[in-house]
Amino acid sequence: MTESTHSHVLSRRGVLTGIGVAGVAGLTVGSAAPAAASTPTTPGAALASLLAGNARFRSGHSRHPHQGVADVHRLAAGQHPFAIVLGCADSRVSPEVLFDQGLGDIFDNRVAGNIVDEVVTGSIEYAVAEFAPPVLVVLGHERCGAVAATVETIESGGTPPGSIGALVEALRPAIEPVLHQPGDVVENGVRANIRYQVARLLAGSAIVRDAVAARTLRVVGARYDLDTAAVTLL
Question: Taking the model in full, what pTM does it have?
Answer without folding.
Answer: 0.85
